[in-house]
Amino acid sequence: MVGHWELSDVALRREIRNGNILFAGNRKLKIYGLLHCKSGKKMKRENRVFFSTEKEAVQYGFRPCGHCMKSDYKKWKDEII
């Protein structure tokens, strides 16, 4: 997990282009999703973190986004109920 505030814009684009960053999350809400998610694009820079895998996000206690990862979110929700 790496915070958005730790990366310059150039470094972030390079990491995404190289495939090192595939998911973004909100560290306060503990939600992760795809980089192109509308909900994710609205969050503040200081709350945004990045992950290379879904497994990494889950290890940090994040749950899938209900907008861009509907099937994963439904699966997660069914497991906790």
Write the layout of secondary structure elements.
Blueprint: E1 2-3, H1 9-17, E2 23-26, E3 31-34, H2 38-41, E4 48-51, H3 54-59, E5 63-64, H4 70-80
Parallel strand pairs: 3-5
Antiparallel strand pairs: 1-4, 2-3, 2-4
Describe the structure in your own words.
- The chain has a five-stranded mixed beta sheet.
- It is 37% helix and 20% strand.
- The mean pLDDT is 95.
- The radius of gyration is 12 Å and the shape is elongated.
- The chain has helices at residues 9-17, 38-41, 54-59, 70-80; strands spanning 2-3, 23-26, 31-34, 48-51, 63-64.
- The protein has one domain (2-80): 3-Layer(aba) Sandwich (DNA Methylphosphotriester Repair Domain), CATH 3.40.10.
- It is an alpha+beta fold.
- The longest helix has 11 residues, at 70-80.
- It contains four helices and five strands.
By DSSP, the count of extended strands is 5
SSE pattern: EHEEHEHEH
| Inertia-based shape | elongated
Give me the Rg, rounded: 12 Å
Give the strand order, joined by hyphens, for the main sheet.
1-4-2-3-5
Whole-number mean pLDDT: 95
CATH architecture: 3-Layer(aba) Sandwich
Q: What's the CATH C level?
A: Alpha Beta
Helix segment count? 4
Low-confidence stretches: none
Summarize the structure.
The chain is of the alpha+beta class and 81 residues long.
Features of the shown structure:
37% helix; 4 helices; alpha+beta; 81 residues; five-stranded mixed beta sheet; DNA Methylphosphotriester Repair Domain
